[in-house]
Amino acid sequence: MSETAHLTNETAGRVLTIKRVFNAPPALVFDAFADPKRMLQWMGPRDYPATYVEADLRVGGKWRACLDSAASGEKLWHGGVYQDIVPGKRLAFTFAWDQEDGRPGLETLVNITFEPQDEKTLMTFRQSVFDTPESCRGHEQGWNSAFDRLEELLSQE
Predict the structure, then answer these.
(1) In terms of pTM, does the model score above 0.70?
(2) Can you tell me the distance from the alpha carbon of 29 to that of 88, in angstroms, rounded to the nearest whole number?
(3) CB neighbour class for 141 (10 Å; exposed up to 12, middle 13-18, buried from 19)
(4) Which pLDDT tens digit goes with each residue over 11-48?
(5) Most exposed among 57, 76, 82, 134, judged by the fewest C-beta atoms under 10 Å?
């Protein structure tokens, strides 16, 4: 199940919500977001897979990653700070792409919940607030491609 919805108020088109059901228990899906070694296996769209991930998984801890273009070799660095961590249930962190000068760009907030559904997990992913609807749509495509990769990884376990 893949579902994307956008709010229809003053942030219309600038808030991304993706819901996915993964065929794995919440603890396993959460771990895929919490363990840098596992994140390397699925993070990033197919054409920009992650080649570097580090994470200090604690409230106030920082995370950092690099997506690397399979075609051009372009590197896209990004990172943030963990805001909320409830193992197996909830994860929240800031997200910002590095600008050309190395400073973080616009910061968004990512909130993810992991809810049990029989032997599966309903993941609700929300990222907000983007500066433009175009940026939101770009992230929607990128995250959905990454979540496709996560689904494939979880199906192998």
Answers:
(1) yes
(2) 8
(3) exposed
(4) 678 999 999 999 999 999 999 999 999 999 999 999 99
(5) 134
